[in-house]
Design a protein that fits this description.
298 residues; 7-stranded mixed sheet; alpha/beta; 34% helix; Nucleotidyltransferase, domain 5; 14% strand; elongated
Length: 298
């Protein structure tokens, strides 16, 4: 049997001895459906080394990941690095053992979640209430109220963008493998103007830079193409905007260009800037409606 199977003769002798002991009743056979009796094989790692779980959780704990005294730094998050850190502490194990221990302890691979809003300014609610009241009163008086913002910039050329379009099966539109700006014909910069009362949007697409002149030109284009006809008796224009970019609350050029626009169209322009980091809830053209489009070089 040793020559046929390649198994050591001593292993065959031990197997025959076990069968003889089971035959005479000196040893209980394995349970039905099992090859080995219960308790066979190596013991679990946590039985051999009970402290390994405690050490692993200490390494994984976010509060200790940046401690230079620890063998694992916060930038080393792979199972291999954790296993290396545990080996430095005297625990003999491999990467797969670390993964099994982490799953056993209830850990899973997860992405970061944006939930921390930061400190709450005591006057934040009053700020938004003022902006809401200003917009509501203007809408009730049949005055235009718009929300403005620059949307996501896109490279112009054969580049991959999100979304799908109809094409023959197996014949997708071929684009560049890498999005190198040097290969682009230009950059499309959409500036959205959203009419709150009429639920209507207008997007002006620039091709050079997102500047204050471009932002105000977009607002002026909206007024000439849509706003003037929709509000023929208007005497004022309320604009809600975030506090950065081309329509920054501190941008002097933005204010100068708005003054020139007000003189040209004959309207009193009032701008309500929302505080930094709080503009995600504003509706702007291009986000949740199909906007009308124009094209203006920045």
């Amino acid at each position: 049997m040793a020559r046929v199977t390649g198994i050591s003769r001593r292993t065959i002798d031990r197997g025959l001895l076990e069968l003889d002991r089971e035959r005479v009743g000196e040893r209980e056979p394995p349970a039905a459906g099992r090859v080995r009796r219960a308790g066979a094989g190596r013991k679990a790692l946590i039985e051999i080394d009970p402290k390994v779980v405690e050490e692993l959780e200490r390494l994984v704990d976010p509060a200790t990941l940046g401690d230079p005294e620890r063998p694992l730094r916060w930038t080393s998050k792979s199972a291999a690095k954790r296993a290396e850190g545990l080996r430095e502490l005297g625990h003999e194990l491999v990467d797969r053992s670390v993964l099994r221990l982490l799953h056993r302890a209830g850990y899973t691979m997860q992405q970061n979640v944006k939930t921390r809003e930061g400190a709450d300014h005591p006057g934040r609610d009053a700020q938004f209430q003022y902006i809401n009241d200003t917009a509501a009163h203007a809408i009730a008086a049949k005055q235009p109220v718009i929300s403005v913002d620059t949307k996501h910039r896109e490279l112009v050329g054969e580049f991959k963008n999100g979304g799908r379009e109809w094409a023959r099966s197996g014949e997708p539109v071929e684009v560049n493998t890498h999005d190198f700006p040097s290969h682009a014909k230009g950059k499309a910069i959409p500036y959205g103007v959203y009419d709150l009362a009429r639920n209507e949007g207008w997007v002006s697409v620039g091709v050079s830079r997102d500047t204050a002149q471009f932002a105000v030109a977009s607002i002026g284009s909206w007024w000439e193409q849509l706003g003037h006809a929709a509000y023929p008796a208007a005497s004022s224009l309320i604009i809600t905007a975030d506090s950065g970019g081309s329509n920054s609350a501190r941008g002097r050029l933005w204010k100068v260009e708005l003054q020139r626009l007000a003189e040209r169209i004959g309207l009193e322009i009032v701008v309500c800037h929302v505080p930094r980091g709080t503009s995600k809830g504003r509706r702007v053209a291009g986000e949740d409606l199909t906007p009308r489009r124009s094209q203006i070089p920045a």
